[in-house]
Amino acid sequence: MCHIPGMVYRTPAAKADIENQRSFVRVSTSLTCHGRRMQSLSAPPRFRGQPVLASAGRRPSRQARLLGSLASIESKLDQLLAQTSVVQLAAEFPLELEVTELSGAGMRARRPAEPLAPGDVVEVVLVLNHAPLQLASAVAQVVRTQERELVFAFPRILENHRKAIIQFVLEEQREQRRAGW
Question: In terms of DSSP H, where are the helices of the chain?
């Protein structure tokens, strides 16, 4: 056993794993998350979507500015498709969670109506943005419960979904700093 003030680890590898997870930046937020219970961590996930990474703030080209009206129409169509997709998502993933804190390693969420306990496994789909629709999924496991919240770790997550979450977290932190929160 390794002992660090305030924490006891069974093996050095467990200590490294915890410290690796803590290296992810986290942000306070308010996101919708849909989920479904899974039998185990090894069960196959149902969500098959790819996250859409937002562009890095590139200025539109001259041609794109000239086609502004078409872009506006496309944006409206994206919003309609997003609404339809979220309704379908809620039907397939009936457990609704409100995420209050998010990082690339896990999340904190308000307790849902359906009880969850430490060790329970849930496939989650995070709605990172509504227009254009941006989703990221992970297999999450309840690590601990608190009075009004659950803390989840992401033991199984595809790297591109983790990158989408990290990009969201960094952008959200920037916005919060600009707003003076």
Answer: 12-22, 62-66, 68-92, 159-179
Task: Give the per-residue pLDDT at 9.
Answer: 42
Distance in angstroms (rounded) separating the CA atoms of residues 108 and 131: 24
Radius of gyration in angstroms for the set of CA atoms belonging to the chain, rounded to a whole number: 19
Residue among 174, 168, 177, 173 nearest 136 (CA): 168
The pLDDT value given to residue 8: 45
> What is the CATH classification number for the domain harbouring 47?
2.40.10.430
Residue 60 counted as domain residue: no
pLDDT digits (tens, 9 = 90+) for 59-109: 666 676 667 767 666 666 666 665 666 678 888 899 999 999 999 999 999
The reply to whether the predicted model has a pTM over 0.85 is: no
Q: Which two tokens stand for residue 87?
A: 């309704």
Which residues span the domain enclosing 39? Answer: 26-54+67-179
Instruction: Decide: 153 and 104 in contact? Cβ < 8 Å.
Output: no
- Is residue 62 one of the residues assigned to a domain? no
pLDDT exceeds cutoff 50 at 3: no
pLDDT tens, residue by residue, 117-169:
999 999 999 989 877 778 899 999 999 998 899 999 999 999 999 999 999 99
